[in-house]
Specification:
- This protein is mainly beta.
- The chain has a domain of about 200 residues: YVTN repeat-like/Quinoprotein amine dehydrogenase (Methylamine Dehydrogenase, Chain H, 7 Propeller), CATH 2.130.10.
- It has 4 helices and 32 strands.
- A 4-stranded antiparallel β-sheet has the order 1-32-31-30.
- Strand 19 and strand 20 form a beta hairpin.
Length: about 475
Amino acid sequence: MNSLIKPKNDRFLAFFHPKKELRRSDWTSWLLVFFLFLHINPIVNAQIEQRWKSHSKAALNTANKAICARLDSDKNVVVLCYTWQPDSTGDMMVIKLDPSGQERWRRIIDGPAHTDDRPVDLAIDAKNNIWVCGHTRTRYDDTDILLVKVAANGSVQHKETFGLFAGKFDMPSALTVDGAGYPGIAGYVTSPDSGINYAVLRFLPSGELYWYRTYATLELDQANGIAVDDSCNFYSTGIVNGGLHSSDLLVMKHDSAGNLQWLHRYDGRRSDNDAGRCITLDDSAGAYVSGYVNHAGERADLPLLKFTRDGVLIQEMIFGCGTADCMAERIYTDVSSAQVSAVFTDYSLQESGGILLQFADADGRTLFDRKFHSGNYFYRLLPQKNFRLLIGSKLFSEEGTLQPSFAIPDRNDGYLYQFVDSTIHGISYIRDIVVDGDQVYFVGDDVGEANGTISVINYRFDTAALSTYLKNLPQTGGKK
């Protein structure tokens, strides 16, 4: 045998040799090796810790779909769901989990007409009251906006429906709640003369309607996103004049009494199909808006527009998607930047996936932009002191399901670090990701025609451990 590869210790061979008897010292050595082997993976993956996971169904024979989740001030996780029995009507469902992942309570919410009720969005006020908006089918065979207030202990306090005209369809798109406990809804209402109209509604803390405002053209108009500042001003965005190759992106601001402060109707550079889908505010009440703007051949690019609190457009950034069709889904701000999470579909390449963009707050420089491939889907970017942490999922191709994933990107298309939780199976959709400091909550489901379980998984990431990992990487670069 070549002496370069010959084992120097026969105990190594003895472990795999059934006819050679091991001495007590041999067993001691191998127990030590076995102990170290068991601890290799926890040491390597100490940067990400799965703290708990929870799986919920309304009942054994129900299908259940997650919509979104929020944290209350006590770090309880509140999950909004849709639940239904096959060949039956559906209801809203709210599940509350404590900080350790144990279910505290769940509530099935049935609308006033006991028909199909579908949840849309969730918000929690300063007193930990839970607000849920959705739409409910009425006795006129149309839909009305439904707002439900649920107390912190799970008791349903109030249900309010709003429909502008009987026999017409009214829908919510997004929900927020201000510091005084007044909920605000963005969506649309339908009128006989102007069709679908952009709508913003504000409700009292008790749940009754306070005011509503509309914006109407003779084409489709719809509010898609809403945000509120510390002075209880409501900012909304959506689409107006939604005809063939003619829609504009609309941004509006109403004060707490419903008075219009300003509006900006944004017509993209090609005067084609443009729409606002999401809006958020920074610490100085500057409004960031994204959605899509058309560039050519019915393909859409990603915009990032920034407005002052007085409605002045001060940044206009467009991320070109080439041959792909792109559309923003969520927008976030941190201390010094804004980011857009989007989806793309490239019909020529028969490819779809996710896009994540980050822009500097001060001058609009692009800090990060990437399309994700190879089954990677990242929805959030968390800027840390020494690195940027991506939060998302990776496709587990053997099952066609998703597994939660964390990654630190390199300067190319690879990753200096990536953790994929291979213990998670059966999640078909990641519906929401909630970030709270170093805690990350994944909310998903495996919804199908006759099944569906709600899954919530909580992780903690260790910034110091991740920094140490990066520091110890070879100077030639990290792993792909």
